[in-house]
Amino acid sequence: MDAVENCREFLRARRASTGVAQIFFGSNDASAKIRALTPGAFSDDGAAIHSYYTTAYLAATGISGRNLFGYLTAYVQGAGALALSAFSPGNWTLSAPASRDMEQFINVLGERISVQFSTNAVGAWFSLTKLVPWAKPDPFAVVRGTNA
Asked: Which of 47, 74, 98, 146 is the most buried (most CB within 10 A)?
């Protein structure tokens, strides 16, 4: 019997014992572990699952030229620390359920900005359901005037 047949026998035996079809993943390292997806698990065999979400580029509506993105609110819940990247150092400490919107001063100048939210610790996760950036025309340079 070859490895494929061994695998088929294992899957047939597993389905028969639980009555539920499951998907299993084999490893290609020296551990020779067989893994299954576990609902509610937020780690990969004890290692962090790095997760992130990057928004589309956001612009102030109806205004052309450079904008001052000064403030950001978001309804986000989860566990661990949520890193905000690309414009402002800092982390938000998460809880579930979230009791209120999180807030952050960002003070970024640009025609458009993109925001990235990420976690990278064992057991960390997040659910982002609302994002509201605050922007106004840049008070010192409404029109850029050059491409340099």
From this structure: 74
